[in-house]
UniProtKB/TrEMBL annotation:
Pfam (any one): HD
EC annotation from Swiss-Prot or TrEMBL: 2.7.7.59, 3.1.4.-
Similarity annotation: Belongs to the GlnD family.
Entry superkingdom: Bacteria
Region (Disordered): 1-28
UniProt KW keywords: Hydrolase, Magnesium, Multifunctional enzyme, Nucleotidyltransferase, Repeat, Transferase
Protein name in the entry: Bifunctional uridylyltransferase/uridylyl-removing enzyme
One function term, GO molecular function aspect: [protein-PII] uridylyltransferase activity
Domain annotation HD: ranges: 503-625
Required cofactor(s): Mg(2+)
Domain ACT stretches: 743-820, 854-931
Length: 943
């Protein structure tokens, strides 16, 4: 098993797998020289080089033995990632030296030979190598490569390529290196890692001396600016947040490359080879690191290298992204098993993100410290701002720092106050101050529950740009010191494809959405929530509720219920009043109610609205719940929110609000039907009266309550046109840009399996069903309406795609479209998503509606899912009145409102048992081998 990893301020928590057998920390002493002697003796027996083909075979066999030796020791847990990387690089050196010697022995001598050196650069130059990494080489000369040297370089490169190695190479003189380094930060960085491997070492030493001298002449600033720009571009490409649930181990924020950047800066500025050389007052920079920080850097290096080694071995390629399918595999290989309520993969990823956070901290505090040390100590000057000075702060480099004589240890509240003071003045916290905060964060625990600390924290939470400052507090470990339960969600990921961030990062993102709503930045996207947030009387309670809404995740059980209980303890500790505490607890308990109802229930059903109104009871709580829901959803991931979901939430809010205001949004059913018919009649006034009368007799009450008058009028015109044309099938589409959906209306004779056939055709057309209403008219005709989107969550609106959609529906209903074959061709989900399990579940509810049995089906999304489920429902003799289709990552949550053939609920226990079994059987096909899945929610059906 691998060594337990401990974050800087998380000692004492469960931080890794248990200790296993003793491990070797590197290669056996003297092994490379012995290996080299043996290799040279075989390549050049008795001074005569082998024929090239035999040499390639020998080298390939030797390289394979080296890689296998390291891999076996690594997989036997004898060594961890960093020693393995060093060992592999060291053993690879022997092959490179052997190739150089074989080349020299094979090529004919020249009268005059210019000396040259074989130099390792990049990662190989640092003396670390992953199993599938490139090998970067520099052929270095003093003044230029001679004719025999060029021949040798060509000979060696072809030999390396024949061995199947991925080689990056360059041939440069000493002067070329310096010129190229000055003009290209990438070349400069590679040369910082340069290491002599073979050839004339004096050539390399002359270069190293000249390179060191020109770096001193250039100064750190140009290199620092270049590396910062490079990092910014890299983070923009691989993710600005270090807490993405499928992180890039090498290039992502807080990953290996960020650690390497710190090393490069230290190497450039102080010519150090290892980070421990910065520990202690007598070291370059005057002690930039403590011993514990240096050990934490080492742990992070080793942890990331261990993960990287496993990724390369498991995939057989230079894979650097820790995707869903690889996370359980790598976690298990590193010894992470289930511990309490946490699965092994969740523990592994939590520790990964704790390491990422440590690296993010080091970047924030060490990089500016290196810059400052290279320039000299900062000048700390009293602030002209009297309040800042009286609070115990000063300015250095234009940033806020603790004034001399003010100690974070003696007065821990200063660690919070410095962020508030900096925020209010539009300043930054000085890196030296941030470093001191990280080192002394544990002292803030003494102020837990004290008024001064709670007031400072609440000010930051509810003030300007809270997400920016809360991320800093979280990075420094301060939130966990004030709210101990927060620590349990730091770095906690949910092993699904719905959530993009870890729980703590999602929470901070949601608080940022609240602030954006308040300043009007989301007026066009979420107009109702943007308006309501300005009407709230319980603003502080709302912010704390968002902070705590997911605080109980990872504990097992219902996190809403557990979180509501925790809120009862945490809120008073933060200084909230009993009334605010009760409001926060209620909001945490019900924070999923609005979204689950809007997306999984029929909001046209009066009981749905009345049930919510009974729970909410007050307009203020309804406003709070709606705003919290919007913030929560917007913070899940950029792809979760769309116009259709916004519409459903808005309509649900207004219906419940009218009930709470004493309105008649849910009057008696017959009254509502009569009003709907009156409104339709007014819009159809220019039509012949017999035609209007005939139309009014067509719809059952459920039809009249499902659409607005304008839609009723359109249906009347469509039905009349179909009658006059004697058309057996009519398909109409309408793009609703405000809702980001396309409405597809199908009018034809009703028959069993109609829903499945239409759904299948829509799937083949590439349309994603988000909602559906199924109506059989009094004359036996079906009037089915589907709301669909494209794979990107927008309206399905391209004219040629709409035309194809209509054709496919007609072909499906006529039996000319082979749905089964076409659905098989649909895009399957990526392999990385198949590791995410979705346990099938069926919930049958006879209490959610007064007139329908509500069936909720949870299963893995895939082509044909709707067909299998709806076929099972039809086989039980049930009629579907409406369907609500929702997807959370790869999880499909489909809800159907059904009746039996007599128009009644299904309440017979025997029938319910049979129905449940049939639906479970339908869902099981998603979990069987070959069941597959699709990344988009293209609900499918087949004849």
């Amino acid at each position: 098993m691998f060594m337990a990893m401990t974050s800087l301020d998380d000692a004492g928590t469960d931080t890794g797998p248990a200790m296993g057998p003793a491990r070797r920390q590197g290669p056996v002493a003297g092994e490379p020289p012995v290996l080299l002697s043996s290799l040279l003796a075989e390549l050049i027996p008795d001074g005569r080089p082998l024929p090239r083909d035999e040499a390639v075979t020998l080298l390939r066999r030797s390289l394979g033995r080296i890689q296998n030796r390291v891999q076996q020791a690594f997989e036997a847990h004898e060594i961890t990632g960093l020693p393995a990387a060093r060992w592999l690089a060291s053993l690879t050196d022997t092959v490179m030296v052997g190739i150089r010697a074989y080349t020299e022995a094979t090529l004919p001598p020249a009268p005059v030979e210019k000396p040259w050196a074989l130099v390792a650069t990049g990662g190989y130059g640092r003396g670390v190598l992953a199993p599938s990494s490139d090998i970067d080489l520099l052929f270095l000369t003093d003044t230029g490569m001679g004719a025999r040297g060029k021949q040798a370089v060509e000979f060696m490169l072809y030999l390396l390529w024949d061995l199947g190695l991925k080689v990056g190479h360059a041939t440069r003189s000493r002067a070329d290196c310096i010129v190229d380094a000055k003009g290209d930060a990438t070349v400069l960085t590679a040369l910082l890692d340069a290491r002599h491997v073979a050839g004339d070492e004096a050539v390399f030493q002359r270069f190293a001396k000249a390179f060191r001298e020109v770096r001193e002449e250039w100064g750190l600033r140009p290199f620092l600016v270049a590396k910062r720009a490079e990092r910014q571009q890299r983070h923009a490409r691989y993710g600005e947040s270090p807490f993405l649930v499928e992180p890039h181990v090498k290039e992502g924020r807080g990953g290996l490359r960020d650690l390497q950047t710190l090393y490069w800066l230290a190497r450039y500025a102080f010519n150090v080879q290892r980070m421990p050389e910065l520990v202690g007052p007598a070291t370059p920079g005057g002690g930039l690191l403590t011993g514990e920080e240096a050990r934490a850097i080492r742990r992070a290096w080793d942890f990331f290298w261990t993960v990287r080694f496993h990724l390369h071995i498991v995939t057989g390629r230079a894979e650097e992204r820790l995707t869903f399918d690889l996370q359980p595999v790598v976690g298990a290989r590193m010894g992470y098993t289930r511990h309490g309520l946490q699965d092994g993969v969740e523990r592994f990823m939590k520790h990964f993100f704790l390491m990422v956070r440590d690296v993010a901290r080091f970047t924030r505090i060490l990089e500016p410290a290196i810059e400052r040390a290279s320039l000299g100590p900062p000048a700390v000057v009293p602030a002209s701002d009297k309040a800042l000075t009286e609070a115990g702060f000063a300015l250095a480099d234009g940033k806020v720092i603790a004034a001399p004589g003010h100690d974070f240890t003696l007065n821990p509240v200063l660690m919070l106050r410095i962020f508030r003071m900096a925020r209010d003045r539009g300043l930054e916290v000085h890196p030296l101050a941030f470093r001191a905060i990280v080192r002394h964060a544990r002292h803030l625990s003494r102020l837990r529950g004290e008024a001064a600390a709670s007031a400072e924290f609440l000010d930051i939470l509810t003030g300007r740009d809270p997400a920016i400052w809360l991320r800093l507090l979280n990075e420094a470990g301060l939130i966990s010191r004030l709210v101990p339960d927060w620590q349990r969600i730091v770095g906690l990921m949910q092993f699904d494809t719905y959530h993009v961030f870890t729980v703590d990062e999602h929470t901070i993102e949601a608080i940022g959405v609240l602030a954006a709503l308040e300043r009007g930045a989301l007026n066009e996207i979420t107009p109702v929530a943007s308006e309501l947030i300005g009407q709230l009387q319980s603003r502080r309670a709302l912010y704390v509720a968002v902070l705590l809404h997911d605080i109980a995740k990872g504990r097992g059980g219902d996190h809403s219920e557990l979180g509501a209980e925790l809120a009862q303890t945490i809120c008073p500790m933060l200084g909230l009043t009993p009334e605010e505490t009760e409001t926060v607890s209620w909001l945490v308990l019900h924070h999923l109610m609005i979204s689950q109802t809007a997306f999984k229930r029929d909001i046209e059903d009066p009981k749905t609205i009345l049930d919510i109104a009974e729970v909410v009871q007050s307009p203020e709580r309804l406003r709070l719940l709606l705003v919290l829901t919007v913030a929560d959803m917007r913070a899940v991931s950029p792809k979760v929110w769309n116009g259709w979901k916004a519409t459903l939430l808005r309509e649900l809010y207004w219906r419940v609000a009218e009930v709470l205001a004493g309105g008649l949004s849910v009057p008696e059913r017959d009254v509502r039907v009569a009003r709907a018919k009156e409104a339709a009649t007014m819009l159809l006034a220019d039509r012949p009266k017999p035609e209007i009368a005939a139309f009014l007799e067509l719809g059952y009450p459920g039809y009249w309550l499902s659409f607005d008058p304008e839609t009723h009028a359109r249906h009347a015109a469509m039905i009349q046109e179909a009658k006059e044309a004697k058309a057996p099938l009519t398909v109409r589409t309408r793009v609703l840009e405000s809702r980001a959906v396309t409405e597809v209306t199908v009018y034809c004779a009703d028959h069993p399996g109609l829903f499945s056939r239409i759904a299948g055709a829509l799937a083949v057309a590439g349309a994603t069903i988000v909602d559906a209403r199924i109506h059989t008219m009094t004359d036996g005709m079906a009037l089915d309406t589907f709301w669909v989107q494209d794979a990107q969550g927008g309206a399905f609106e391209a004219p040629h795609r709409l035309a194809r959609l209509a054709v496919l529906v007609e072909q499906s209903l006529s039996g000319r479209l082979r749905l089964r074959e076409e659905i098989r061709k649909l895009k399957r989900e990526p392999a990385r998503l198949r590791a995410v399990t979705v346990p099938p579940r069926v919930v049958i509810d006879n209490h959610a509606s007064n007139t329908y049995t509500v069936i909720e089906v949870n299963g893995r999304d895939r082509p044909g899912l709707l067909h299998d489920v709806t076929a099972a429902i039809s086989d039980q003799g049930l009629q579907i009145a409406s369907a609500h289709i929702t997807t959370y990552g790869v999880r499909a949550v489909d809800v159907f409102y059904v009746k039996d053939v007599f128009g009644l609920k299904v309440e017979n226990e025997r029938k319910l048992v049979v129905l449940r079994r049939a639906l479970e059987d339908a869902l099981e096909t998603a979990e069987r081998p070959g069941g597959g899945g699709v990344a988009t929610r293209a609900a499918a059906g087949m004849a």
